[in-house]
Amino acid sequence: VNSAQFWNNWFQGVIRGNFASGTYPQRRAYVSLTDGQNRMHAMNPYDQYEVSIPLETAGDCLEELGHAMYGPYALYSGTRTPFLTRFVKGEDGYLSNTNGGPRMYMNLEDFVLYSTGRRNAAFQGIMNLFRTSSNCKARLHWGKAGWIEHGQCFNGAKEYPNSWCDFGCAAQELDPTRKFEAVADFWQFGATKAGRDYDLLTPEGYRACCSPEGFKHAHCQCVERAPCT
Question: Do residues 174 and 184 make contact, with C-beta atoms less than 8 angstroms apart?
Answer without folding.
Answer: no
